[in-house]
Write a structure and sequence with these properties.
Layout: E1 10-14, H1 19-28, E2 34-38, H2 48-58, E3 62-65, H3 73-78, H4 80-100, E4 105-109, H5 138-158, E5 161-167, E6 169-171, H6 184-197, E7 203-206, E8 212-213, E9 215-217, H7 218-230, E10 237-240, E11 246-247, H8 248-259, E12 265-268, E13 277-278, H9 283-286, H10 296-310
Parallel strand pairs: 1-2, 1-3, 3-4, 4-5, 5-10, 6-9, 7-12, 8-13
Antiparallel strand pairs: 8-11
Length: 313
């Protein structure tokens, strides 16, 4: 496995005020590289002309593409055009720009929702495009699959060092806690906190609570990204997760306990559950020397403290 040094290189992290980008930048600050950032307000990543002008001006050596339009089941169901079109534009502009302006490395971050919805057992990279997607987020998934395939196409046609990493469900500092657009874990943190503050009122949650999910603390992803860049991985796609899952009901009880909420949990089974189980097979990435370090209990405690410090003041 070839080593790749970030010393004195310019590393661009688009969308640098999001949860994932913030964690990656935090890890990059431990390296001797120049970090280039761009927020949504500074650069419209869906505008190809502006993105290419940014490339021409800054000439990044390495690009870490974590910027995306993201959201939970409700948001994906409500805005399918936005999720498909915006993500395709962002990916196409940044990935093609990296090639056109001679970036040495590009790492594209996707999501575990790229995989088929009904897989018995841990999901490996080989499961890609072997079955139907989960209907509630297929628009986002199709966009991400296109990004993976575009990176693979650049590898195949131009021998570009463009690889893709698929994290499992992420959470941690700088997460989105808006109940209309957030994912399940931060939404639960807000709901249990607000119910606690209101006198331990009941908390109503979507679905049956039976689906199983895996969650990765975002700082562990930051370490995985750096590991992937510095070790010049040979294949085009790698899963990044913990290898441990739990039911949504167990997740709710863990968050409830961490927050200190003493009220009732009501499950609304009229709402969709999504995929029954989604556990990643991380053996390929772990064989390259990376492994998640933060337990779910530790991570939820850290995430709740960040929520208290930043969302309730």
């Amino acid at each position: 496995m070839e080593k790749f040094s970030l010393d004195n290189l310019k590393v661009w992290v688009p969308g640098s005020n999001g949860m994932v980008s913030s964690a990656i930048i935090k890890k990059l600050k431990t390296e001797n590289c120049k970090i280039i950032t761009s927020t949504r307000n500074q650069l419209d990543l869906t505008d190809k002309i502006k993105v290419f002008e940014f490339y021409k001006l800054n000439q990044p050596d390495v690009v870490i593409l974590s910027a995306a339009k993201v959201g939970g089941i409700h948001a994906n169901n409500t805005y399918p055009v936005d999720f498909l079109l915006e993500n395709l534009c962002i990916q196409n502009n940044i990935i093609s720009g990296a090639h056109n302006f001679s970036a040495k490395n590009l790492l594209f971050l996707g999501s575990s929702c790229i995989y088929p919805k009904n897989i018995d057992g841990p999901i490996s990279e080989d499961h890609l495009l072997t079955g139907s997607l989960e209907e509630t987020n297929e628009w986002y998934a199709v966009a991400k699959i296109s990004g993976i395939k575009l990176c693979q196409a650049y590898q195949k046609q131009y021998n570009s060092n463009f690889i893709s990493a698929m994290p499992t469900n992420l959470y941690g500092p700088n997460d989105n806690y808006d109940l209309k657009t957030s994912h399940v874990l931060p939404a639960m943190i807000r709901k249990f906190h607000e119910a606690k503050e209101a006198g331990n009122t009941p908390v109503k949650l979507w679905g049956s609570g039976t689906p199983m999910r895996e969650f990765l603390y975002v700082d562990d992803l930051g370490k995985a990204v750096l590991h992937a860049l510095e070790n010049s991985l040979d294949e085009h796609l790698y899963n990044i997760g913990t290898g441990v899952d739990l039911t949504i009901k167990s997740l709710a009880e863990l968050i409830q306990s961490t927050v200190g909420h003493k009220g009732e949990i009501i499950w609304d089974s009229s709402k969709p559950d999504g995929t029954p189980r989604k556990l990643m097979d991380n053996s390929k990435m772990e064989s390259q020397g990376w492994k998640a370090e933060v337990s779910l209990a530790q991570g939820i405690t850290l995430a709740y403290q960040w929520f208290l410090d930043n969302e309730t003041s």
